[in-house]
Amino acid sequence: MVAYFDRFLRRHLNALRLARWGLPRVQEHPGAIVVYCNHPAWWDAATIILLAGRLFPGRESHAPFDAAMLERYRIFRRIGAFGVDLDTARGAAQFLAASRKILARPDRMIWITAQGRFADVRARPLGLRPGVARLPEIAPDALFLPLALEYAFWDERGAEAFAAFGAPIPGRDLLALSRSERLARLESELTGTLDRLGADVIAREPGRFEPLLSGRKGIGGVYDLWRWSRAWLAGRRFDPAHRAGREAGGKVP
């Protein structure tokens, strides 16, 4: 499935970019990991699958999924998704029971779109659901890692996907707080990570990011065939990108 979504994102997006300051620094953590993120778009599931496969290949990943949506996209059951009724007390119990079982093993991780709904990346406060603040009680040895996601259009026809991980928070540090204080701490860390990522997206400088994958450039069809022919006749290498050399990281004059 990682290979499938790699091709899928390459076909439909221009790139998936990871902020250079936002690399996940948790590889040596011996216990389970909880990644919690905002939920700006339909693309989040595909983006998370790519991040999990590329950055955490040695860990088994799981994710809560809206039970109704999981019936429509059953393929996600085969790659670690588990159904949760988002708006009921029964759903909260489902989430905690499944999470307890998953986080009992140190080689596992859970990815949570903690807003529980689609929300604009600029919306404040984030309004994280309280369930994520319950997890330190059942997994105090887990590490909690904020993940900021954003999508924007830069110079190419396809959108850019952006990601950045914030500073990890030990579960025991969160457990020392009340539930409301835990939720506030988790939301504050994710908000700060989102704000910093947003500043890099606005700057539109590829050099601030590590490209995890790059999609197809150019317009395609007859127009790009004509451009290629002109380059070939002139003895030049054809670069279909709108701004040649943009990925090198330097500013375009």
Find the structural class using helix and strand composition: alpha/beta
One letter per element, helices H and strands E, the order comes to HEEHEHEHEHEEEHHEH
Task: Please report the first level of CATH classification, the CATH class of the largest domain.
Answer: Alpha Beta
CATH superfamily placement of the largest domain: Glycerol-3-phosphate (1)-acyltransferase
What is the tally of beta strands? 9
Q: In CATH terms, what is the fold-level topology of the largest domain?
A: Glycerol-3-phosphate (1)-acyltransferase
Oligomer: single chain
> How much helicity do the residues have?
25-40%
Sheet of most strands:
9 strands, mixed
Please tell me how large the radius of gyration is: 20 Å
The dominant shape is globular
Mean pLDDT: 87
Strand content: 15-25%
* N/C terminus separation: 40 Å
Q: Could you name the ranges where pLDDT drops below 50 across 5 or more consecutive residues?
A: 248-253
Helix count from the secondary structure assignment: 8
Which CATH architecture of the largest domain is right? 3-Layer(aba) Sandwich
Query: How many domains is the backbone divided into?
Result: 2
What attributes does this structure have?
single chain; 253 residues; alpha/beta; Glycerol-3-phosphate (1)-acyltransferase; 2 domains; 9-stranded mixed β-sheet; 8 helices; 21% strand; disordered C terminus
